[in-house]
Amino acid sequence: MSFTYKYPRPCVTTDCLIFKKIDSVWNLLLIERGNEPFKGCWALPGGFLEMEEDLETCAARELQEETGLTGISLHQLYAFGAPDRDPRHRTISIAFWGFDDTDQQAKGSDDAAKAQWFALDQLPQLAFDHEIILHKALSNHEIKGKLNQ
User: Fold this and answer.
1) pTM, rounded to two decimals
2) Domain 11-147, CATH among 3.90.79.10, 3.30.559.10, 3.40.630.30, 2.40.40.10
């Protein structure tokens, strides 16, 4: 597919909020960014949509590439499109959430230097607008219901 437009177009990404109960405490999976912007900072796993894939496929692919996790049921949360959310260019992100109840080990790969679980009450500062994304997820009734179990 080749397109030429008179006006610039935004990029599209997906981000994943993956929750897991570890020792009776709910945790969130984060990656340490291996590249700029925000190199060395913690972020939600995610990345850019490829031209031939749908949003959920992108989210699952990025989750697998950056953390090694597969087979997690993902659910669309919300679209985030503040003009300055990514310092590189205009980027719209669609966030997905899921719960990991597997024995898989998360391991950073691709452009993620590390992948690590953090207790929800002990999260580091997050890159981009990922704190806003997390806040939106934690206010979602379905997610809140599962976290209260």
Assistant:
1) 0.94
2) 3.90.79.10
